[in-house]
Amino acid sequence: MEIEITVNGRKRRFDVEPNKLLLNLVRDELYLTGTKYGCGIGECGACTVLLDGEAVLSCMVLAVDADGKCVETIEGVADGDKLDPIQEAYIEEGAIQCGFCTPGFIMTTKALLKENPDPSEAEIREYLKGNYCRCTGYVNIIKAVQSAAKKLRS
Amino acid sequence: MSSKPAFKVLGKDTPRQDGVAKVTGREIFASDMAFPNMLYGRILKSPYAHAKVKSMDVSKAEAMGAVTLTPGEIPDIKYCPRLVSVPSSTYKDWKVLAEKGHYVGEPIGAVAAESEEEAQRALESIEVDYEVLGASFDAFDSMKLGADLIHEQIYLEDDLIDVKNNIGCQLEITEGDPASLEAADYVIERTYRTNRRYHNQLETKSVLVRPEPDGGVSIWSTTQTIHNTRLLIHDIYGIPMGKIRVYKVALGGSFGSSIHVNPPVTVAVGLALKSRRPVKLCYTREEDIRDHCAYQIIFKLKLGAFKDGTLAGGQMEAYLDIGAHQIQAYPLLGCVVGWWVSLYRLPYKEYVGKAVYTNKVPCCAFRGYGNPQTTWVVETMMDELAGMIGVDPLDFRLKNFIGEGELFWGQGPTVKSIIRSCGVEEILTKGAEMVDWYNRLKPEEQTGRYRKGWGVGRGFHTSSAGAPVPSSIIDFGGAMLKMNEDGTFDYVSALMDHGCGTQDAHAKIIAEELCVPVDKVNIIRADTGTTVYDVCTHASRGVYSGGGAALKVAGKVKEQIREFAGRILDAYPHAVRIRYDEARGQAVVYAEGIEGREVTYRDVAETARQKNWGTAASVESYRQPSCPPHFTGYFVDVEVDTWTGKVKLLRVVAGADIGTVINPKLAAGQVHGGFAQGWGMTVLEDTPYDPESGDLMNGGSVANYKVPTTCDLLDLEDLTVFFADTYEPTGPFGAKGLGEGALNPVAGAIANAIQSALGVRFFQLPITPIRILEALKEKEG
Amino acid sequence: MYVNKVNTHILPIEFEYHAPKSLDETVELLEKYGEDAHVLAGGTDLLPHMKQRRVEPKHIVNIKGIPELACIKEIPEGIHIGALAKLRAIELSPLINEKLPLLSEAARSVGSIQIRNLGTIGGNICNASPSADMATPLMAVDAKVHVYSKSGEKNYPIVEFFHGRGEVRLEQGELVTGFTVPHLPEGAGSAFEKIGWTTLDIATVNVAAVVSLKDGKIDHCSIALGACSPAPIRGVLAEEILRGREPSAEAMDEAVELIATCVEPRERWRRAPPEYRQRTSKALARDAVTRAVEAARR
Fold first, then answer.
1. Per the CB < 8 Å rule, is C284 touching B706?
2. How remote is the C-alpha of B166 from its chain's centroid?
3. Minimal Cα distance from C8: which residue of B?
4. C197 in contact with A, Cβ within 8 Å
5. Do C115 and A42 touch (CB under 8 A)?
6. What ipTM was assigned to the predicted interfaces of this complex?
7. How many CA atoms lie within 13 Å of B227's alpha carbon, on the beta-carbon side?
8. Is the domain covering B33-133+201-288 a CATH 3.30.110.10 domain?
9. Mean per-residue pLDDT for B407-418?
10. Which residue of A has its CA nearest to C89?
11. Is the pTM of this model over 0.90?
């Protein structure tokens, strides 16, 4: 099936089978491998992308269902070499360990801070609940989100 | 208090070098690797817990165009996928593809095809005829007379040995005077059972193998050791080692699950050699959860104490339910006794450890390598014993802990050294003050639905398996460092970074030694062809051992810089000094007090180039002389809902003695992560089996294997982490490890807090809401 | 065997894909392909089930192209929620938050933000899981289910929709198009309670309660429970015993004892033994009614 998706601001056309997952389209066809497979069943959030601005799991979206929509992946977050304040905050706060969950966390954080520029700790925790991290115990991640929110507000 | 030197680089927060790659999605993990013309591999797994493969028909898969791999096509070699111990301590019962499935999920065949979809279809077309055998899902059932043998014969080094009663290996150790225990005023004897936790590392085990024109292979895989990966592939496939290149790629979590060489690697090499095409093989999550788990141990522990609050001795039996294969069961038998006897002074200790086969997923190291399990048992019993004697559990610990100047079994009976730095007292007394320990409520003072509890747990872990004499465990690494012509440095090492920032710690150690900011030291991602051997990133040895190697090469390079600078400055190399000049952005070598006699690193390197003196560089192997323990302690407050059995964390204070702290935020991150894993271990995680299907009760789905989320832990203000002020004299700039010690005492501390809330003690992990309600019903009706 | 069939990397089955643009076109496809067809709404249940080979549909009918099914609106009879309304939309809808906070509270308890941005209320209900978090609140508010087929629209109370044992009352060629919730009694308060192993989990037990008070006594009372019987149920006996009484501790004690008698957890459910579900259903029912009373008092 022929579809057209705007990926990180650029229109892309694909011919896909209907059983193609958006996750695999992004990873295998576009080599945008920042979006990760973690579980395939919606438990881990490693495959989070923004679909028309909303955080969704790309392992649960058919590529054909993204037809005509905008997909933003982790590779589209920085402006060239200039990191987004969220990305800076994750580095500064030591919120990264193995880094496999990091892209998903950053995408969810981006959706959160767009919706709610000054979230409480409880709101941050609730919003990031679907992103699983086995390394950090989330402490430095929460701090990074708080710090990013502050940066973005100023 | 220690007298630490003043550091310029260490102890300050610095951004990790892989940070930008990781936040932009540009970091490449094994599962991200791709080559043109590559095939996708899939593994055929045993659907039975115990079944012989009588025949396998792959003709349909071949007809579809897939490349197939069956057991007969692989060299008939039994091996152990973990190569950290010496051969005389290594039991071998693995094959790349098994002719008999010993657990549901064991690889018995494989396919590779043009896409994952095609590979999947080819996989499903394979027809297998099985002879189903009797299976055991419990260590004690396995040991029963007449139980089907899971392995009849295995190798120890090169000797074929018969397996009896499904016991894979055993170890017995007795030390001290038994009369001491016999004379004890108080004795407790209990049986404890730990859970079978799944690592749930975020990246499933993955590999890409490219066959090379010279008959060799290049490998990018999830691993904690590139050199042992190369060794094993050499052992199995007979490829000369120089033709096997194993490349470092970022590792999406491991926690001990990739100390051994993962099955996808050995299988994918076979597929790549046969197909002459690059083969990518990534486990799905449901395959990964049927690949590895933590060692489940059933302990029988007896401890005795005297009225004065000192310990009299103890006896421990440890039954390791290791699952279907040995990965590092024998060394673990030694470690379990080591973890036990290194916690508290025991005038007499008697230990029997047995590793028992069951038809379950093979167990492997999981952060702490039996230490979280052992420490949970000991810390639970220490609390119980303190209650019996009538002393405060904290005072009881302070009286009996093993500390400075005493003998420490770093990795079991063959790895011992003397403790030179110890922050136990500081951790326990400072922590107690922070939580107002001695004024806590007593459990009997509480009734009603919600009950609060307070618990303490302490522990340690070794930092490496170094020691003054060789042991059954190999522990050395190596590093290369060279000065570039712009005055920066390239650091090359085989040591893997799991994400803990280990390589960044090395870079900081080098920067400290060479008087430059850390951004002047580049971490180069290398491979087996460009690095000297490093055993593995495990045993919390990354900073201590790997950092030791980094410091050694930094020292050598510094000597050469002095030598070159001495020539340039017409000064004595041993007399010149080095400082960092912010304005010039260069380190400067100078002759103190003599005006104009100074030269920057850049000019040293450039002059050495132009005058053909060579590169200031060093490559060295290094073995640490000790295995110093890093110590940790946790104070945990909980609240238990007696209507639902749910346990809520109220406050946690964690103290850690890791010697010199190299990167404070990342070090704290180890404690945060260790606590979160310990929380899951204590109240949540397990992988029980369904004896009917022989498969995991969770059906391979992580929807049924829950781990703590952002909302299942503590608020920021309720978690405090502090570091003891210590300096390890044998460590690089005084540093020790941390990763595993951060987890080890957590279960004990939480379990003690739950006991204090309910007045009920639990002897089985996890302490789930179900078990809590059952226990309360028994107690209160 | 299933260990070799499951593959969560991909959708390991092939199917014919249909994206109808109208209700009539949809039900025509559903009628034509019958059991071979599965409706795709949010996909958060269907796609994992396909990866796990729990279902292997030959036809996928994607109904996202019918935007009118996603509406949330006030109608004379109450509030209408289209089957395609996303859980996130229900969670955030000012109308729902004002008039039916029970539903927004329940929606918030489902999965993660990412799941709720995809998952729909219709999918949550039609998946027929005994633990569906939207089923209990819809039962507690006496919602009606709207079903469309070639023979037109019909509706019936949601209690009649659940057949038990993972089945719902849907015939070949029928599509759930939405739910109508009648106006709640004046001043009613509500609460939703749920327990799972973690905060990101399906319910081990969930309870929804709606209470209104008259002169300090319980007037309207509805309690629905999920995950503790083969299908979501109403705690009818408990409701009856509470009506007309002050919400005292004694009344609550009696009510939750009746709750324990009406739930029928299955022995073979692996996540928790029946006794645990029984005991926690009592605890959660008590919590839910208590909170609903507090809300009604405000």
1. no
2. 27
3. B284
4. no
5. yes
6. 0.99
7. 20
8. no
9. 92
10. A54
11. yes
